[in-house]
Amino acid sequence: MCSLPLQDYQRYGRQMILDGFGLSGQVKLKHASVVVVDAGGLGCPALQYLGAAGIGLIGIIDHDRVELSNLQRQILHTTESVGSYKAESAAQALKRNNPDLNIDIMTVALAPENALELLRPYDIILDCTDNIPTRYLLSDAAVVLEKPLVSGAAQKYEGQLCVYNLGPTGPCYRCIFPTPQPRETVGSCEELGILGAVTGTIGNMQALETIKILLGLHDQKPSLLMYSALGSPPFRSIKLRARKPTCSACSNPDHGLSSISNTDYVQFCGGVSPDWVIQGMDAGMTGHRISAKEFDELVESKVPMEIIDVRPPTEYGICQLPGSQNIPLKNIMTQPEKYLSAAPHKDIYLVCRLGNDSQIAAQALRKVDTDRVIKDVVGGLRAWSNQVDPTFPVY
């Protein structure tokens, strides 16, 4: 009969006494291997519970470093972890809870060239990433390696969970989403926001689905679980069909190493994600933009002007420049002439968070009034904080 180290009976006893679990279930977990891609908002809670459950080998793939803005939701990292690799920080946290864990730390970026090599040693793959190209790459790799892919996603107050490529007929990600969403419709947590507890909910459920698969407790029926923190009820399950006979990945016998290595997943998903900080700092459009320092000099000189902050009202409520008024971008784009007539003789200066939306708003206003001075601040309020007032909040 299989046995465990004596201390493991006490450590894992509360789950071992469950019907359908027992000693044999704990032994299965001890001999199982799981890889988590991205030790962020989803990966941290998933890793925490996988480690606590006694998974024998855990791989962590993440080349990013911990930032202060991560700590609101990435619960394995601490203030002391800021600047260190997320994979290393997460591994240290898991070891503090369970020093006997075997952990593979991989501080590299997952790419078509290394995906199969990095993922091959593990029984199950967890997709805890926040970008669409990597989702397609992980799905294709899971198909080639014939491994289940436990995929989670979260944004704002909502999340979703699905297990792909499970069993002989389980669909892959491409079966459900054969073509990616248009690039302009996909936002990040930095742009749209995220409630930390939402990533915790989805990440914990990814760990749960993984444990069910390893124990043989999963019904293997394909479904997509939708979660809304503000919904009632908060969970909704959508039944999925089996894999598509026409799927270019899981139903294509020629799909393999060559197709993955020859695929540009970033271009397939619409190109590189814009770097809004860099774009907002672009001082192009000669004569139509003003630096934060130059803007400060105008403010100090008390030149008559209108300062329009085009951020959403919620963001305006977090922090704002004295004397500014909040007119959200969507309002300006709908009726630009309305906001020009309110102050017909004053120059207009527009600001936003990073200097991108303000450019759009300024262009819309200039199309209506070509004679007035209408400029926006390069780099937005973040540049104001960096160059003018270091006490101004950055979020």
From TrEMBL:
Q: Which PANTHER family match?
A: ADENYLYLTRANSFERASE AND SULFURTRANSFERASE MOCS3, UBIQUITIN-ACTIVATING ENZYME E1
Which keywords has UniProt assigned to this entry?
ATP-binding, Cytoplasm, Metal-binding, Multifunctional enzyme, Nucleotide-binding, Nucleotidyltransferase, Transferase, tRNA processing, Ubl conjugation pathway, Zinc
Q: Which HAMAP family match?
A: MOCS3_Uba4
Name the residues that bind ATP.
Answer: 41, 62, 69-73, 86, 130-131
The prosthetic group or cofactor this protein requires is: Zn(2+)
* Stored PROSITE patterns: RHODANESE_3
Q: Which residues are in the Rhodanese domain?
A: 307-393
GO MF terms held by the record: adenylyltransferase activity; ATP binding; metal ion binding; thiosulfate-cyanide sulfurtransferase activity; URM1 activating enzyme activity
Give the pathway annotation. tRNA modification; 5-methoxycarbonylmethyl-2-thiouridine-tRNA biosynthesis
Compartments, as annotated in UniProt: Cytoplasm, Cytosol
From the broadest rank down, the organism's phylogenetic lineage runs: Eukaryota, Fungi, Dikarya, Basidiomycota, Agaricomycotina
Which parts of the sequence bind Zn(2+)? 172, 175, 247, 250
Instruction: List the Gene3D superfamilies hit by this protein, alphabetically.
Output: NAD(P)-binding Rossmann-like Domain (3.40.50.720), Rhodanese-like domain (3.40.250.10)
For this chain's record, the cofactor binding note is:
Binds 1 zinc ion per subunit.
Protein name per UniProt: Needs CLA4 to survive protein 3
Gene Ontology biological-process entries: protein urmylation; tRNA wobble position uridine thiolation
Query: Which GO cellular component term is one of those annotated?
Result: cytosol
Protein family (similarity comment): In the N-terminal section; belongs to the HesA/MoeB/ThiF family. UBA4 subfamily.
Name of one Pfam family that matches: Rhodanese
